[in-house]
Design a protein that fits this description.
Blueprint (H helix, E strand, L loop, with lengths): L3 E12 L2 E12 L3 E5 L6 H8 L12 E3 L2 E2 L4 H7 E4 L11 H11 L4 H14 L15 H13 L5 E5 L7 H16 L3 E6 L2 H7 L2 E6 L2 E6 L1 H6 L5 E5 L3 H10 L4 E3 L4 E5 L4 H13 L6 E5 L3 H9 L9 H4 L1
Parallel strand pairs: 3-8, 3-9, 6-7, 7-8
Antiparallel strand pairs: 1-2, 1-4, 4-5, 9-10, 11-13, 11-14, 12-13
The protein binds adenosine-5'-triphosphate.
The site of adenosine-5'-triphosphate has 11 residues, from helix 1.
């Protein structure tokens, strides 16, 4: 438990009859990025609100520790170690970016001098120095998100909850935000990230959990999750029809495209599987002109896990 920044067992939350979280476990090691994926309404924000002490879990819920503190017994201690940014921005549009930062510094009881220094440093780090004197309402979406995160960092939190931090941002702003998140983690911060962008989880997260119907449908690294889904294959392309014909008879279980002279062989893309295919081609003295390995992406995983499609039984011990 002690090496975990966030540890939740059997987290439950219902609103009336509606069960939103139905016994969810989280185990997030310090200094890592954990991403919670799920369709709209899956309960991601609810999980963030509980873990960040904004709302209480059900009384039947299991124990939760954040930053080493028990959430139920010592929510105040939890609050001192965490920062939250997300769909409900703390940015006040009527005052300037710098004023927003200084307000945050006040809330954290920083001295005037420390507040000024921290504000200047963070605005600089988040590329907001030029806009510091302008009302936040005039900021673009990306600037507001950066200001929001900068405000969160005033308290120097060791665990940060980012609830859909890049929703609505253009690709460049999204990449900027990813870079900022990577730098935070390089400094030892733990990030709990919710997102609807599978690519975001793929890019950033050490571990990913897919929330569906109030439960974790699967958890693992991006690579582990992708391996759960069938559909990976190796594609061979030939320019010489004679070589194509020889390969077709040398290899079993292929999907042929006689027009394009391509063959698809179901494969997980492992070294051993690739070697077996290449050995067969060598034995038949055939040379492919191109070989590509296709692995399912996280979109495939997401649809399979949240769309009711059957997936192969998950080897739990390998994933957890
Ligand atoms: N205060 C509330 N009272 C009643 N139902 C609620 C309340 N807050 C959330 N819910 C319901 O709980 C479910 C989960 O909501 P939540 O906001 O956690 O989902 P989410 O995964 O964050 O979705 P999104 O991706 O759309 O933000 C939804 O069906 C929502 O309507």
């Amino acid at each position: 438990m002690t090496n975990l920044a966030i540890a939740a067992n059997g987290l439950r939350k219902s609103y009336g009859d509606k069960v939103v979280l139905d016994g969810v476990d989280f185990a997030v090691p310090h200094g890592t990025i954990f991403s919670l994926l799920g369709p709209n309404g899956a309960g991601k924000t609810t999980a963030v609100k509980i873990l960040s002490t904004l709302i209480s879990p059900d009384p039947t819920s299991g124990p939760v520790r954040v930053g080493g503190h028990d959430l139920a017994a010592d929510p105040r201690a939890v609050r001192t170690t965490i920062g939250v940014t997300g769909q409900f921005s703390a940015v006040d549009g009527l005052i300037t970016g710098a004023e927003n930062m200084l307000l945050m510094a006040d809330l954290h009881h920083l001295s005037k001098r420390d507040g000024q220094r921290t504000t200047t440093e963070l605005l600089e780090r988040f590329d907001l120095t030029d806009a510091a004197g302008k009302p936040a309402s005039t900021y673009s979406g990306g600037m507001k998100r950066r200001l929001d995160l900068a405000m969160t960092l005033v308290g120097n939190p060791r665990i940060i909850f980012l609830d859909e931090p890049t929703t609505g941002l253009d690709p460049r702003s999204r990449h900027n935000m990813w870079q900022i998140i990577r730098e935070l983690v390089a400094d030892g911060v733990t990030v709990f990230l919710t997102t609807q962008y599978l690519e975001e989880a793929d890019q950033l997260a050490d571990r990913i959990a897919v929330l569906n119907d109030g439960r974790i449908a699967a958890e693992g690294t991006a690579a582990e999750l992708k391996r759960l889904i069938p559909g990976g294959h190796v594609q061979l392309r030939f320019e010489d029809p004679a070589a194509y014909a020889r390969a077709t008879s040398a290899l079993r279980d292929t999907v042929r495209d006689d027009q394009a002279l391509t063959l698809q062989i179901p494969s997980g893309g492992t070294q051993r599987e690739l070697r077996a295919i290449l050995d067969r081609l060598d034995d038949a003295d055939v040379h492919a002109d191109a070989l590509t390995v296709h692995t399912p992406d996280l979109d495939d995983v997401f649809f399979a896990l949240t769309g009711g499609a059957r997936i192969p039984t998950q080897p739990k011990e390998a994933l957890r």
